[in-house]
Amino acid sequence: MTVVTVCASYMVTLLWVRGSRMQRFLIELCILIPFWISVLTRAFGWLALLSNKGILNTWAQNLGFLTEPLTLVRNEFGVVVGMVHFLIPFAAFPLAYSILMPALYVPIIAMLVGLVLRGVATVEDVDTAVRCGPGLRWAAMGPHLLYDLGGGEGGIRGHMEHLAASKEGMLRDLATWTMFPAETAETLDAGLAREKAGRSHAELAAERDSLLVSFMRARRSLRR
């Protein structure tokens, strides 16, 4: 059942994230509507669909595909169908996050690694710039809302009107390679050794987790 749920959820999520506008709309309905309907109502819905006198068996017999109804409920098949339908919405959201994150993260990493490899900045410089610049601001509101604020009273339209030319210049300067250069790992490892300054993996992980918890608590307190 777990394998069926994961496979079905992955296919549903892939359509949700990468499908056409209509496909995404239909998948959203299929994911969200079950949250608005009780488990008992959904179970009776499957009974109406799959029982011996249900819609599926009745249509199949009327069309001549079956001479006798199939037993599709009150057995292992029925349990799997019901449970998979119940679990798909809970699996779709984390899967969508896992599919979307690389699409957002990889282009940024490519640009940052390119800065290091070209000698524009050190590994520590890049990490500091991201941590104290966009990383901190994006954690507060996200890039689009911040761009809207950056446009003043004109919002995002004002932002694009005044800064589109400079942004396009930055776009032309982005890294365009599709494979990491051979020296990437060695260059980054040397820079990270200086930035870590002898701190162990466990120490860095503990510092990261402590900071994340502090950020989340501060954000929650401000939203009350």
Write a structural description.
Helices cover 77% and strands 0% of the residues. It has eleven helices and no strands. The chain has helices spanning 2-18, 21-36, 39-50, 55-62, 76-117, 123-132, 134-140, 143-150, 155-172, 184-196, 201-222. The two termini are 41 Å apart. The relative contact order is 0.07.
Helix % is over 70%
| Global Rg | 26 Å
Average of per-residue pLDDT values: 86
Shape: elongated
Number of separate strands: 0
Low-confidence stretches: none
Largest sheet: none
Strand content: under 5%
Distance between the termini: 41 Å
Helix/strand order = HHHHHHHHHHH
Question: Structural class, from secondary structure content?
Answer: mainly alpha
**How many distinct helices?**
11
